[in-house]
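Fill in residues.
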């Protein structure tokens, strides 16, 4: 089991009188799924950007982050790339990630391309995880024939084609019915255990957290002077 421990984290936007986050301490353990809740604008996406290492350079970020028993002091307003390079995100609009005119296999090959790809052919071989077959996803299936839940699973697996230890998802079940929501959550539960991942999900769906959180709900609240606190419920 690996742990992500955030300690004494303080974040402020440029020229902000009071910090946005102040003296945050929170821990996440691998093999588990965590849910982040809070009103719109409370700072859920900002917390994700901190983990991704994409905070504005003119902001102020301090504190320490410990991962896999190694402690990193935050420098230059950004968490260490040793951590952020292993953080992958599945955005809310998965049409930004998948190509519906391609097959499942072709999309996974596409995910193997580097961030700044050259004019090189896609890989000829790709490992289609057995776990995808368990959810009725065949490598040669056209993406447009997949259900909403299966498309979400494909987007997740595309994010995982690069080395990943922390997986972030923004409202992954927002557009899904109950059946497909259960499919995605079952997939993520299996994935967290199988790959020993830390999975963190932003959601407004209280029923989702009630069903799947298992006492791992993270709440972001606005306190006095607009300072946000992050607590594990």
């Amino acid at each position: 089991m690996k742990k992500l421990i955030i300690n004494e984290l303080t974040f402020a936007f440029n020229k902000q009188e009071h910090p946005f986050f102040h003296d945050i301490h929170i821990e996440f353990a691998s093999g588990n799924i965590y849910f982040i809740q809070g009103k719109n604008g409370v700072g859920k996406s900002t917390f994700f950007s901190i983990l991704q290492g994409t905070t504005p350079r003119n902001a102020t970020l301090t504190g320490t982050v410990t991962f896999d028993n190694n402690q990193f002091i935050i420098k230059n307003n950004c968490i260490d790339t040793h951590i952020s390079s292993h953080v992958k995100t599945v955005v809310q609009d998965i049409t930004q990630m998948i190509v519906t005119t391609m097959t499942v296999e072709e999309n996974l090959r596409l995910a193997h391309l580097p961030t700044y790809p050259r004019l090189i052919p896609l890989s000829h071989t790709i490992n289609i995880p057995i776990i995808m077959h368990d959810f009725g996803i065949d490598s040669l299936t056209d993406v447009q024939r997949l259900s909403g839940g299966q498309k979400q699973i494909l987007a997740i697996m595309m994010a995982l084609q690069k080395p990943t230890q922390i997986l972030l998802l923004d409202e992954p079940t927002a557009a899904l019915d109950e059946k497909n929501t259960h499919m995605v959550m079952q997939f993520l539960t299996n994935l967290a255990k199988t790959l020993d991942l830390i999975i963190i999900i932003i959601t407004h769906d209280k029923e989702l957290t009630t069903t799947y959180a298992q006492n791992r709900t993270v709440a972001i609240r606005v306190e006095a002077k607009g300072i946000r606190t992050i607590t594990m419920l």
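Residues 31-54+82-232 form a domain with the Rossmann fold fold (CATH 3.40.50.300).
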